[in-house]
Specification:
The complex is a heterodimer of chains A (about 100) and B (about 220). Chain A is an all-alpha fold and about 100 residues long. Helices cover about 75% and strands about 0% of the residues of chain A. Chain A is elongated. The mean pLDDT of chain A is about 85. Chain B is an all-alpha fold and about 220 residues long. Chain B has three domains: about 80 residues, Four Helix Bundle (Hemerythrin (Met), subunit A), CATH 1.20.120.1200; about 30 residues; about 45 residues. Chain B is globular. Classes of the chains: A mainly alpha (about 100), B mainly alpha (about 220). At the A-B interface, helix 1, helix 2 and helix 3 of A face helix 1, helix 2, helix 3, helix 5 and helix 6 of B.
């Protein structure tokens, strides 16, 4: 791999963000921390979309449009997740996800 | 190295290091701050790739909207015993091992499979689609012929020898979806916060320990 920036570099960065988000989702006890992990994963996907849009002319427009859809849907997901977290906090006075065990069999 | 390469390495280092810091830090407020720099770095990468509209949308929606939501969530739910949520060293070890293995698999998969577009030298440096082309793609008007009108598809459709794909219906669906989600979020988050007498009466198992305040409607899930 040479130093000139190509598609590989963006894919490697996207993979790094994805792994960070996955580990963040797995290790955080805080519900908002898990939400941040989800945001990192979605950003990794967006980086891949835009990088393919740049480096592959077939996806020149689709890559950007799908990236826009990902951004808008991530905003919707963050809004609804924070509403759920606030409701959870109202009932439990904590945002520790380990205390959410009413449905455990 | 060209200037774009130097800019890429700077932005990629900023984005990657801040993303790692989001994972590593134990303080949720600091994690939000690191996430801010990560998202700003990603939008800088979009500008570097030539996708200026996506980069601007990333700045406006993510950094301006979503992150403010997250920070408000942190402020509304942060209490002193719960701000720091430490996990044990063994769990850190497992998480690190799983993360490294996952990254190795991902990196090896596309380094081996060598996806299309890697021959950057002969790519011809085609221009990135600008905002006008994006808008025309949303209307199904891929590359506007000179006689095409903006109101609809032109009569003689030959759009890159492909079927004309319009993204207008997905755009409308997403906008209505966003409206529904925001109304639902406002409805969910509307419940009044109940003030308990002290931290000794934490309702851990979901049972109600305090009567509802001044006859307010109880939040969802507390009626059992």
């Amino acid at each position: 791999m040479n130093l000139a920036v190509g598609l590989h570099h963006f894919l490697l960065l996207g993979a790094l963000l994805f792994v960070c988000g996955a580990v963040c989702m797995a290790t955080k006890r805080n519900a908002i921390g898990i939400l941040m992990g989800v945001e990192l994963v979605l950003n990794a996907a967006t980086i891949n979309f835009v990088a393919f849009a740049r480096y592959n002319p077939i996806f020149q427009v689709e890559g950007q449009i799908f990236a826009l859809f990902v951004i808008v849907l991530a905003a919707a997901e963050a809004a609804i997740a924070l509403a759920i977290v606030l409701n959870f906090y109202n009932n439990h006075l904590t945002v520790d996800v380990d205390t959410a065990e009413e449905l455990k069999g | 190295m060209a200037l774009t390469d130097v800019l890429f390495y700077l932005l990629a280092a900023m984005t990657g290091i801040c993303a790692l810091a989001v994972v590593v830090t134990q303080n949720i407020v600091r994690a939000a701050a690191w996430l801010l720099f990560t998202l700003a770095g990603v939008s800088g990468l979009f500008f570097l790739l030539g996708a200026d509209f996506v980069g601007a949308t990333q700045l406006l929606v993510y950094v301006g909207g979503t992150l403010v939501l997250v920070v408000f969530g942190v402020m509304l739910t942060a209490q002193s015993p719960f701000v720091n949520m430490r996990i044990s060293a063994a769990e850190w070890g497992i998480a690190l091992a799983v993360g490294l293995v996952l990254y190795g698999v991902l990196a090896a998969s596309f380094l081996i499979s060598n996806p299309k577009g890697v021959g950057d030298a002969q790519l011809g440096r085609e221009e990135m689609a600008d905002s006008i082309l994006l808008g025309q793609a949303l209307l199904g008007q891929w590359q506007a012929s000179p006689q095409g009108t903006m109101s609809g598809l032109p009569a003689d459709i030959h759009l890159r020898n492909r079927l004309a794909v319009s993204y207008l219906l997905p755009f409308e669906i997403v906008s209505v979806h966003l409206l529904v989600v925001l109304i639902g979020a406002a409805y969910l988050a509307r419940a009044k916060r109940r003030r308990l007498a002290g931290p000794a009466s934490l309702p851990v198992d979901g049972t109600d320990v305090s009567p509802p305040v001044d006859g307010q409607e109880q939040p969802l899930g507390a009626q059992t």
